[in-house]
Amino acid sequence: MIMVPRFALRRLSERAAAFRVVVVNGPRQAGKTTLLDLFHRDHGGSFRSLDDATTLAVARDDPTEFAHYGATPRAIDEIQRGGDALVLAIKYLVDRDNSKGQFVLSGSTRFLTVPTLSESLAGRAVFVELWPFAAAERFGTPGDFCELLFAGRQSFSGAAESPWTRPDYLRLICAGGYPEVLGIDNPTLRQGWFDGYLSTVVLRDVASFAQIQHGDLIPRLLGILAARAGGQTVISDLAKDLQLNNVTIRNYLSYLDTVFLTGRLSPWSSNLNAKLVKTPKVFPTDSGLAAHLLQVDMEALAAPGHPATGTLVETFVYAELTRLLAAGDLGAALYFYRDRDGREIDFLLERRNGQVVAIEVKASSTVGAQDFRHLRWLADRLGDRFAGGYVLHLGTQTHPFGDRMMALPLSAMWHNAGR
């Protein structure tokens, strides 16, 4: 088996050397157990997984002794399964010992938002997010795309023609990034994997911290969100579609976010005008899962004008940007822009120093000056704060389109490597 290096391993090692507790968060089956195992091999200590029934029973029977046992760093996988008592025991230990690198924990839920973990490790722990594979990880290239965007269009000048074709992109998007599913070529088996994955997350992970009366509707809700990714998430519309009340829908949306199946993209504002749309977008966090929910594959998407193509390409870009930002040290936040005058920009990255990069996504291989109109409008208003405007497309060419503007093939996100 070929072991694909993960960007998060460096981040984990750095933080374990500087803090008492590091929590690796991310969706189930993203590779957290493998990451902790690699960390354990490099740094020693002890490794235990609460997915093992016997280990879990020991942790619940005597959480204090369980937390204290083993050489440091103590790596504990799926920590949320140990519940409140185990978290309190870890908190007790680290409050009495300031040594760095005592615990490396992993969890398949957003650790601090789970209600049953009433005593969090806030102020004692730092977090490392691990997502399914980014394309740059799969193809062995640096994960520096976002840094290059801020460096300006000269970073991409002289780029060779991309070897990626439209069918290549569609195959990549429909596969997604979950490590296990990437090794499954049979479409029927792949569908079965995704069905089982959703059942496990809903019936096991969500049910561990929430009372669910309509669990069968959660995959349907996720499917609706996949179909509307990139659009406004209106609670009342979702409630009507699923014949549930607004409170239940709002709760279910928070559950999906807690187990990393969806991500919320906030609208960006810099007081440009008073007509901003304030409703966030919600995206599935993996394009392969989204394609499964929409019941499409690359052959279906190859048909000209297929309604799901644009949505899935945008979902893929959202997922890639999320993965790269989580693994790097750029310190940028991800947003979108939309106002009531019809101006819309798919993605904006803003650094702490106020610099902004704007990205439009096109599910076609041709780009024209008209595709940059909203990017130019934003550049005019931001002045020197505007670091660059880019249109990502499914073609092969890199082209400048005026001051600080450039069209890039989607594969620029991984240095045009692979296939």
Strand order of the largest sheet: 7-6-8-9-10-11-13-12
Q: What structural class results from the helix and strand content?
A: alpha/beta
Rg, please? 22 Å
Order of helices and strands: HEHEHHEHEEHHHHHHHEEHHHEEEHEEE
**Main beta sheet, described?**
8 strands, mixed
The percentage helix is 25-40%
The rough form would be described as globular
Give an overview in words.
There is one protein chain. With 419 residues, the chain is α/β, with parallel strands linked by helices. The protein contains 16 helices and 13 strands. The strands form two sheets. The protein has an eight-stranded mixed β-sheet with strand order 7-6-8-9-10-11-13-12, with helices on both faces. A hairpin with a 5-residue loop joins β8 and β9. The radius of gyration is 22 Å and the shape is globular. The model has no long low-confidence stretch (mean pLDDT 91).
Quick rundown:
By secondary structure, the chain is of the alpha/beta class. The chain is 40% helix and 16% strand.
Fold blueprint:
Blueprint: H1 7-16, E1 21-25, H2 32-43, E2 46-49, H3 53-61, H4 63-68, E3 74-77, H5 83-95, E4 103-107, E5 125-129, H6 135-138, H7 145-151, H8 166-175, H9 187-206, H10 217-227, H11 235-242, H12 246-258, E6 262-267, E7 281-284, H13 287-294, H14 298-301, H15 307-327, E8 333-338, E9 344-350, E10 356-361, H16 373-382, E11 386-393, E12 399-400, E13 405-409
Parallel strand pairs: 1-4, 1-5, 2-3, 3-4, 6-8, 10-11, 11-13
Antiparallel strand pairs: 6-7, 8-9, 9-10, 12-13
